[in-house]
Amino acid sequence: MKKYYLLLLFLVSFGSHAQIKGTVSDEKGNPLPFVTILQEDTYNGTTSNEQGNYEFNLNNKGKQSVVFQFLGFKTQKVAIQIDKLPYSLNIQMIEESFSLNEVIINKKNNPALAIIKSAIASRKQNTEKTNRFNADFYSRGIFKLKNAPKKILGQKIGDLNGALDSTGTGIISLSETFSKIAFEKPNNLKEVVTASKVSGSNNGYSYNTARSSFYDFYDNTIDFGVQMISPIANNAFNYYNYKLESTFIDENANMINKIKVSAKRDSEPVFEGYIYVVEDSWAIYAVDLDIKGYRIKEEFLDVMTLKQNFSYNKSNKIWAKNTQSLEITAGAFGIKFTGKYNYVYSNYEFINAFAPKTFTNEITRIEINANKKDSLFWNANRPIPLTIEESTDYVRKDSIYKVRNSEKYLDSIDAKGNKFKLLKLLTGYTYKNSTKKNSFSYEGLLNLGSLSFNTVQGYNFDSGFRYTNWKNQETKGIYTSISTKLNYGFAEDRLRVTGQFIHRFNNQNYATLYMTGGSSVKQFNPNEPISKVINTISSLAFKNNFMKLYNLESVAIGYSQDIANGVNLNGKIDYQQRKPLFNNTDFSLFSKDDLYTSNNPLAPNDFTSSAFEKHHLTKINLLARINFGNKYSSRPDGKFNIRNDKYPTLYLGYEKAVAANEKKYEFDQFNTRLTYDLTLGNKGVLGMNLKAGKFLNADNIAFIDYKHFNGNQTHIGQTARYLNVFNLLPYYSNSTNDSYYEAHTEYNDKGYIINKIPLLNKLKSTLILGAHALATPNNKPYTEVTVGLDNLGFGKFKMLRVDYVRSYQNGFQGDGVVFGLKFLNILE
């Protein structure tokens, strides 16, 4: 097998069509990685790989000049005459002789400050030169894993389709992209992907598109989840210290200032490293900056290093970015992740204006045969040569892909995995046919993850069966799922069974048909404001009974699809028969002398009456979701929506109850909802969730059909944000069958305020300010105000949040502390 790999690697190397190729090294012969290589006075260039090798094609023949540019080394310009191809050109680069022109640096006279002030003042004119352009784009991304465990949460992870060796180390992702881009600042983009290659998949599409590679330091902030402050932002002096380390002269006789940037406060969203500024024009020559994980609230990230190099064209006098790299190191539990992404921009065409309708909601389009390009194409066009490691990975994984997707191999793996043992009656069993791409699974009788407790069922757990067919999911987005869930409650001694059918027709408009039916227990509030995990702990430890349940027997059919760009319509018809339920157990682990409240949310101390009478009806539901300004990416295998964060999402709903056993249960309800996240630059994010609704002809409807609001009496929060919950509101105290309005807002400073407060900034947390309001006709308005800290924890584990809450309803109602335990979501 090794001989086979070496032969293919030789053929890959021999098949190269590059006009110029060679190696770049230092004076000692050590290879220099990521050296920028340019054809003089053009935007045609590339960069060397990790082994110092490079190759690229020239735009013109005859006499040419090739420029080699690498930070810390003297720029070299080499004149060449190409007589035959390929042309070999090896370069040894000489370290730069830096000088400060005998400038004396002191606190009162820091020359770096004057340079940065000039760069800030010239920012507008420099960025306007590259406001609009067409360009060719190439990207390559590689992601590696080291010391991966054999199992995660008891499940074997295997070798990840040949990625990992016996030590859990290897390349888990390697891909490349060629595309044509049209870009207009600040964020208009049209990208056509002409070639895409993914190691280990002949049907895959790379995600290394231009959309994710725009980091513009002429902007005040750069988005890394948190808005990072540019070293030449308008307010940069509030965040950075600067030091002029050296100057040097480039090949065009420009003096380049190398300035070290460092943080004034360690926890602020700032870069560290170097920015290189051109004297007189004050344009960016290069950046070499680190982003530390804790500064962008990504604790598992150690550091990202972003490098950019700009080239100058004498004819148009524009400095334009030609190469960019992003290097990532991260890890936890001894597992290490490293990633390297390289980007090459070439053949720029700067224009004054684009034609009308150049930019549409389609941001990216991948051509039909983009992932079918052969090795000849890649060898002839790839601007950065593959390293031996990358070449080996392509060859090995392509070979593994062919073997592991062959019918013989799939059948052998299935035969091993499909063996049935009696123990699987308890633990569960799956039968899989990988060739036909379908599976049948049984969850077993020891599904401990589903075990929970409530006063109606006592201890209860789930089992079930599922059939899945995904034969055309990869190419057309079609899949089918048929499942049934069995739930048994010990205190009731009752088994309930539900079934579900889902069929998705495509990945274009996501047309989906679904059907459900069976018997189940449901909370009166269909949003299920109290989770099974929290209710189990609250009941068994503190003898609280917050979860109020009823029995639902139903059959429903629904259909949803995107009917326009950003507009999804969902319709459902649901026949329901509802029956009241009562407590069947008084068991608890502690507080055994206390009594549970009843299962009646209207009368907690009434153990004989129910909140409603047994009845049946049919519900018709329509829901439209509108993502304003929705963007999307088109691929041969589907359309993939990309929410436009500049605009809100609007929901419009209508519910009608008909065909009830008594007319009084019938009603109409109109409802609407608006969600929006307003990004405030580097000052944080303001989230909003606004809801309103109105019932008609609903005077005597069942309490089940009231509008119930998401309260919380446990003082435990599970979600990352509290934009859909009232933190101290009793679960059913304000339920209504009339009109209602509720508003939730939450401001997360993303560290903007908390980073500036001594001692608190050591927590590296974020400040949360919240306000919540509820209005219904028959109750005084209910309001809450909150203040808290998020992103709390220990070391890399920031899964905690603490909020102080005050509530008001006809005056001061109460206060309390809510503890956010976001890790509990894993248990659901």
TrEMBL record:
InterPro entries noted in UniProt: CarboxyPept-like_regulatory (IPR008969), DUF5686 (IPR043741)
Keyword RNA-binding assigned: no
Single GO term (MF): carboxypeptidase activity
Signal peptide limits: 1-18
SUPFAM superfamilies: Carboxypeptidase regulatory domain-like (SSF49464)
Keyword annotations from UniProtKB, A to Z: Carboxypeptidase, Hydrolase, Protease, Signal
Full protein name: Carboxypeptidase-like regulatory domain-containing protein
Species for this entry: Flavobacterium sandaracinum
Lineage: Bacteria, Pseudomonadati, Bacteroidota, Flavobacteriia, Flavobacteriales
